[in-house]
Amino acid sequence: MLKDKIINNVDAVGIWQRIPSSMVAEIISLTAIDFVSIDMEHGAIDIADLRTIVPIYTSQGIPTVLRIASQHAAFISKVLDLGIDGVMVPQIQTAEEARAIVEYSKYAPLGKRGLGGSCAADGYGELAIDEFIENENRRVTTIIQIETEQAIQNIDEIIEVQGIDLFYIGPFDLSQALGLPGKLDHPVVVRTIKELIYKVKEKGKPVGMHAPHPDFINRWKEHGVHYFTYGMDSSFLKQGIEQAYKALIEIPKARRIANKELMSHKSKPF
What is the pLDDT of residues 106-128, one digit of tens each? Predict the structure, then answer.
């Protein structure tokens, strides 16, 4: 279970899915990925797409985390009823907002998630209500993103909120909030990230981050981060195509150069 990995600080690296395609989900599900973050904030995926995407990952035992585009209680209940393993909520700025997400994503006594039953998450009524509630509160991972200036200012209050399972730092938005967009190696950005990690870890709570490259993962692992998202389906697709066609272009180019050199040697008088 993904939540167990997070709580026990076991390394987990996942990919973003932004393409609304069951075929993409099928391909990703055949890899050794630890989890998939389905992106409704920046991706083209909507709730109808989840009906086909989520069961594919579930059938392969791959946990799914959904970054939602709406903080409404009814929306969070609806996507969790599909069997999503975790919800990630961007742009959380206050303890009140964080507390509301806990209420929307956890059943009583931890929260006030709407209880409908007979959904994918409970096997369409296979589980008794008490068993279903207990399972969901144990299974569902509640993640909030810390990535704004206001969140930085309110971090001491935010990390006191009970029921948040992971504090996820969005480094690009964070760098933008600091007036240094995209400069993830800038001393101010690095110092701010370190301070956030220290404060969260001091409370015994896990931290996650997005990693733009593998070295970033290795660097922040040393600071106690074990949960990373790395890469996305759309960018990997583009990179794969570019690399494949670059090889096709480079081979004829190398041959032309070799032939030109050969002809040059043949044209020289002995």
Answer: 999 999 999 988 999 999 999 99
